[in-house]
Amino acid sequence: MIVRDNVPTDVPTQVDLKGSEISDHTTIGLPSNDVQTAINGINNGLNEKDNEPKEKEIMLSRSDAQFPGGKEAFAKFLTKNLIAPNELEAGEKKVVLVHFKVSEDGTISKVEILQSDGEDYSEEVIRVLGKMPKWVPATQNGIKVATWFTQPVSFIGVE
After folding, report:
1. What is the pLDDT of residue 38?
2. Percentage of the chain with pLDDT > 70?
């Protein structure tokens, strides 16, 4: 048996609902196209209760870890310190893809070779990474955080 107690008799029609927004409760408000105009005009950015300035919105920020001096300085460091373990013919190229962790204090750890054109080249990259100075750590919302960095290192033969 179905009991129909407290059934609303004034259910709105589709025409009545045109321009309405979905919600879990009923409130009397402005049509959606007038909302921004109303918000912009309210109290010139002051709280209604105490006429104090409203709190500023929190801006989320993030910065990546970086070698001191940036990408160019990192490239110079690698060029200066890497020594090709084997003779490369002019134009010959060997690549090592290395992955490492930059901790909250900027130290490098957990060095891992992802791809390499030879064990000697991998060992040379690991040796040079061990000589690197501390990096500028990554930040998230102003807090230093650990992050991972992946870098291809190329050995190119010259004449």
Report:
1. 52
2. 69
